[in-house]
């Protein structure tokens, strides 16, 4: 059996394995659990394959003090051949490589067969009391909310501005189009520019989905370079003709405050209007830079709609570092 890390293309086979071995539980949705695992370096899902058929799995993780094993499964017709043992040893090696000194797991009292399996591998029943609390039940009213209140303001420009072109600040700057952006470089840009403003949507996308999104017909991405270093970017979405939308815009933190944002925004506005749209659109939300709304107004945008909603805190889900503390943009009066 070949043991390798899980790939996104394994999803259907993994869920079929878990169903076939009876370890699927209705309240543990693999469509949520697996992406959450993939978003952190503290967890790994391994799969076992034989002749290109996925026949086994194990998930291993740690929280800095002890490791945990989950989702050990072997197709029924392959059980009893030592494959489960091989998976457990692989998971243990993963923990040892990270300096984790101890590994734990939980087994239901009624699952005698699995308990005996682990005992043969050297595991012991610990004198511990396992306690739990369901966090998605109505009685969990004393918890801080996992959802954040968000106000999104939609803005438009219905005619080309008559202002003079905004000059580039002094320095070695250049704006270049990404003709065929790689997922790796785009993730770097997206993280550098958007992390402090709670951008998480595209962090949640698989490599395949993100590649399709950023290389779709009608998507144009331009990067501002400062002395050869990426300083920010703007993404135009020309798919909803006759309108054009500025889908993403911003600077890396080190380059904020140098006048580059005003230059890049107005550069993007001029480029967009060169295509002759009926409207140029952009939106700003509660977690944007406090001056974002005013900067868009200065560039010629006017608000036309506002929407209130909820956002599952991406810091709690691991998409944004827990220490990120965005400054809430001042509230904008509804148009």
Note the topology.
Layout: E1 2-5, H1 11-20, H2 30-38, E2 43-50, E3 53-62, E4 67-74, H3 83-97, E5 103-104, H4 112-120, E6 147-157, E7 173-177, H5 183-194, H6 207-214, E8 219-226, E9 229-237, E10 243-251, H7 260-273, E11 279-285, H8 292-299, E12 302-312, H9 314-317
Parallel strand pairs: 4-5, 10-11
Antiparallel strand pairs: 1-2, 2-3, 3-4, 6-11, 6-12, 7-8, 8-9, 9-10
Overview of this protein structure:
With 335 residues, the chain is α+β, with helices and mostly antiparallel strands. It has two domains: 119 residues, Aminopeptidase; 171 residues, Aminopeptidase (3-Layer(aba) Sandwich), CATH 3.40.630. The protein contains nine helices and twelve strands. The strands form two sheets. It has a seven-stranded mixed beta sheet with strand order 7-8-9-10-11-6-12, with helices on both faces. A five-stranded mixed beta sheet has the order 1-2-3-4-5, with helices on both faces. Helix 7 links the parallel strand 10 and strand 11. The radius of gyration is 25 Å and the shape is elongated. The protein starts with a strand and ends in an 18-residue tail after the last helix. The model has no long low-confidence stretch (mean pLDDT 89).
- What is the H/E order? EHHEEEHEHEEHHEEEHEHEH
- How many domains? The number is 2
Number of helices: 9
N→C terminal distance: 62 Å
* CATH-level-2 architecture of the largest domain: 3-Layer(aba) Sandwich
Q: Which range does the strand content fall in?
A: 25-35%
CATH top level assignment of the largest domain: Alpha Beta
DSSP strand count = 12
Numbering strands along the chain, what is their spatial order in the largest sheet?
Answer: 7-8-9-10-11-6-12
CATH topology term of the largest domain:
Aminopeptidase
Percent helix range = 25-40%
